[in-house]
Structure formats: structure tokens, C-alpha cells
Amino acid sequence: xxxxxxxxxxxxxxxxxxxxxxxxxxxxxxxxxxxxxxxxxxxxxxxxxxxxxxxxxxxxxxxxxxxxxxxxxxxxxxxxxxxxxxxxxxxxxxxxxxxxxxxxxxxxxxxxxxxxxxxxxxxxxxxxxxxxxxxxxxxxxxxxxxxxxxxxxxxxxxxxxxxxxxxxxxxxxxxxxxxxxxxxxxxxxxxxxxxxxxxxxxxxxxxxxxxxxxxx
Length: 216
Known about the structure:
Layout (H helix, E strand, L loop, with lengths): L3 E13 L2 E14 L3 E5 L6 H8 L7 E6 L2 E2 L5 H11 E4 L11 H13 L1 H14 L15 H13 L5 E5 L7 H18 L2 E6 L2 H4 L4 E4 L1
Parallel strand pairs: 3-8, 3-9, 6-7, 7-8
Antiparallel strand pairs: 1-2, 1-4, 4-5
Helix pairs in contact: 3-4, 3-5, 5-6
């Protein structure tokens, strides 16, 4: 199966103060399973916008995102949500964990619809062990550090075994040490699972670690 994601002529405009602002213009590239891609550029360059378009969250003004020969923006909303659940793992600068759920439950809720309750719980426990978080499984997000919260967010992103992991400034809310640990863990996940890793960042050091770079 040709498991690649193609951006073809992606353009995105926003209207601000009555004026049209062009954030992305005619962006084209291909991501294949196992790739390590960095989307680099300063704040406001359109990195997050491109991540959102590639992951099916934001319609482009022009262009297509092609998966197995089909434009994902020709899918119905339900079809696109199903496609995203099966193929995309998302990690953000702000962790977006559910504060009233435990560490284990935050990962579990992302997987129970695909795997069923018992299998989702088993996979969640395995992921916590893989991420060295099993001792925190009954803690709540506000009871653990920022770096630990971001690793929980990683667990949530990988439970459905996605082809692509999109990380939007994943170290932006962390200190240098914690951020370095997060990047190392993401790279280990990519190698172990043969998952494409796409990181949007302004950090120059991450550009040097990637196999491919898109500069905005």
C-alpha cells in the first residue's frame, strides 16, 4: 500500500481587518512512512497552519492533501475524522490533557473506539511502560511535570498506531532539558514504530537532526 501523504499546491489565506493575508502559497511536498521532517520558520510563518492542513483540521484555500490517491478534503467530515483517527497522531505545544482524567485514562480515551475497552487499556499500559511513565498512571495532569505531561500527550498520539506523527512546537512550553528529552523520545518512537515524524519548530538544532526540511 502506498502510504504517503502529498501536499499539492497548498495555499492558505485568512481575512484580517478586512484584508486578505496569504499565510501559505503553493506549498508542495511528500511525506512517506518513516520520514523525519522538520517544518522550520519563525513565528507567524505558517508552520502551525500547514500542520493543521496536513492533518485534516483546516481546509486549504487552494490545493490538495492526497492520501492513497484521494484528496482528504473531498471526504465528508465523518470520513475525515475517521481517517485522522486511523492515520494521524497530534502533539501540540500546550499538552491539552484532560484534567479530570488520570494519566492512564488520557491515553486510553484516545484508543478505546478503535481497539475496544480491554485492548485499549492493555495498550495504554504498554505505552506508559515504553515512555517510563507507568509509576504515574494514576496521577492527574496537574500533579506531574511539563515534560511528563508532554510524554503523556505522546502516548495519546501513538495509541492508534498512526502512520504520521505531527508535533507542533512540542518543546515550546518546556525548559531546554525537558525539551531535549521530549525530542529524544519522539525520535525513539519514530525508529521503533517506523512512523513518519513531522516537527514544526523554530529551533535550528532540530533542523540539523531531520532527514528532510521544509523552510517557511
